Amino acid sequence: MNILVLAPHPFFQARGTPLAVRTVLEFLSARGHQVDVLTLHEGEDVAIPNVRIFRTPSIPGVRNIRPGFSVKKVLCDGLMLVACLRMVRRKRYDLIHAVEESAFIAAVARSVSGVPYVYDMDSSLAEQMVEAYPRLHVALPIMRYCESVAVRRSLGVLTVCAALEDVAHGHDPGKVVGRVEDSTLLPPELPGGGNGNGGILEWARRDGLIAMYVGNLQRYQGIDLLLEGFQHTLRRVPRASLVIVGGREDDIRRYRRMAEVLGILPRVHFLGPRPVSALPDLLREADVLVSPRLTGLNTPMKIYSYLDSGTAVLATRLQTHTQVLDDRTAYLVDPEPETFGAGLADLLTDEPLRHRLASQAKEYVQEEFTPEAAWRKLGMFYDDMEAKAAGARA
After folding, report:
1. Residues 6+ positions from 151 with CB-CB distance below 8 Å
2. Is the same domain home to 281 and 234?
3. Percent of the chain topping pLDDT 70
4. End-to-end CA distance of the chain
5. What is the mean pLDDT of the chain?
6. Which of 53, 59, 170, 176 has the highest count of CB atoms within 10 angstroms of its CB?
7. What is the dihedral of CA 177, 325, 11, 77, to 10 degrees?
8. Rounded CA gap, 332 and 328, in Å?
9. Per mean pLDDT, which range of 121-135, 146-160, 320-334 is the poorest?
10. Does residue 195 belong to any structural domain of this protein?
11. Alpha helix locations (H) across 185-241?
């Protein structure tokens, strides 16, 4: 089939949704489809057989486009709509695979061209908007209705977690909904967790135990909670270090100031962005990996690599985590600074507990959340989509 993939974000970048899109592209390519990708003007080109990348025009002053809703994204999505309509007029596509908000673009394109689309739902756009801008709560019913229209008009919905599967079925109980969770990004040969033998963080290892966060530093990730909680941790484990990997320069500056105000800056180390290739060595150096996320339905992509790392995981006891994690595979705590800090101190001071959680987590992720498992689930979903698309053409 000729498939148009709409990726309304900078592609490629080594972060959550672009990594998931790359997995879909590699899957579609291996399945023998011819794929055109329409994405934003930012991002690195990647070479995948049978895949061509097309970009929207750049807009003066629009750079460093971040995840989530923004004026920059609205402007870029407008250009994507124009480009998409142009592409479906010029070429006969059998299917559109629309990621996140581009499902609305695909719905317009279907009205114009008749090309059916798959809604790749990485998050609930209605819930995400209200979480980011609470004043929009009065408009939540309208946003949910718009989301429901995108679901109902789609050929099928591809989700990344159980919570979003429920959202899709809530909009259309009869809709074909597939669930393909994210996968571990670690190679199979990764050794066990932090071993005390030194490495790329040897300077921190010599000083004490290491807690590590990996990811962007947007507020929904709970970095405020992490820093405030770590202040409590240091009262019990004064030689602990917190290593934060990722984030833009402005975010790092903001949280560095916060750490200074809290009096913990000497024990907090901001490494900035690191390539995915560095992830195995980084995770190996930690004693505890933390995910303090506060909002969102989808499970953070980092969780799957965390689980696979052989290092114990501390996470907030919220649905974003508990749909994948339980008390066998992670140390779950309430999202309050004192509780979070106490949980981190518990793990740092209990080596047998860390080893038990890490071992059970690694076994779990190898059963359910490997690239091979993702391809198997994608295959089951696309068997249905290809049959439905063929029926639509007949």
Report:
1. 119, 121, 157, 168, 171, 172, 175
2. yes
3. 95
4. 14
5. 92
6. 53
7. 60
8. 10
9. 121-135
10. no
11. 202-205, 223-236
